[in-house]
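During the no-cost extension, the postdoctoral fellow (Dr. R.K.) reprocessed legacy sequence entries with the updated structure-token encoder. One reprocessed record is reproduced below for audit purposes.
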Amino acid sequence: MNNHLTELGKYLEKKSSGIIFDIGACDGTDSVIYGKLYPHAQVFCFEPLPSNFELIEKNIKQSGLSNITPVLLCMSNSVGTTEFFVSSGNPESADGSNDFGNKSSSMLPPGETLNTHPWLKFEQKIEVQTTTIDTFCETMNITNVDFIHMDVQGAELMVLQGANQILKQLKCIWLEVECVALYKDQPLKNEVEKTMKNAGFVKTIDTTGPISGDQFWVRKSLHKEKFGNCSLVLLPIREITNRYIFKFSKLIKYLKSKLGINR
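Re-encoded structure tokens follow.
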């Protein structure tokens, strides 16, 4: 998480009195981090699962922070209700100090996540209240959001579809993307990237591996204002290494063909 906090610090000053949204906040751990790093900002912490929401309230109380507002709502592309698929379970390697099963609940039914994480169970469905980012902001008289942290288990584009107005001025967003459909009918990495680029953002961090990862996006005009036309993306070490191994193997293959070496 530290790499994106460093990146966020380039665009959002510690003394900022801005607005931060933590969407799909789980137990509120990240919200507390943002609340401490940006004591003058207002952090809205969104989580639709009641059991997780209880953890959020507990963690906020223990933190002693007064700048975090927990909201028991599911951010989506419409206002109303929806089925919510509740995850549970822990891997055999877990020592019991962390709850893994509460982190994968989603508006979307599970897909390949049942194969990639066979210990994960989806044995319960509940109905949750939904709203959109634009509707919530209008209700709360919020005209500008500085940063969004989004972890909604495959429903990223649904949430973004409900933020047409806020996206026009949003500074930064940190979200999860997948290369395989962990949830049924979820948008994959290329589709999310296309949406963000069309909305006027530039990617500055990408930790995506073979299955999933996170990306940090900055409003293109703000990025240009800070760093000119530089559009450097911090690639994960694995991706950089694989690129050079691939290029080196092609070079070896070419040299062998020229020298008549068959092995």
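The beta strands are 19-23, 42-46, 68-71, 74-75, 80-88, 121-131, 147-150, 172-178, 201-206, 212-219. The longest strand covers residues 121-131. The remaining legacy entries will be reprocessed before the final report is submitted.
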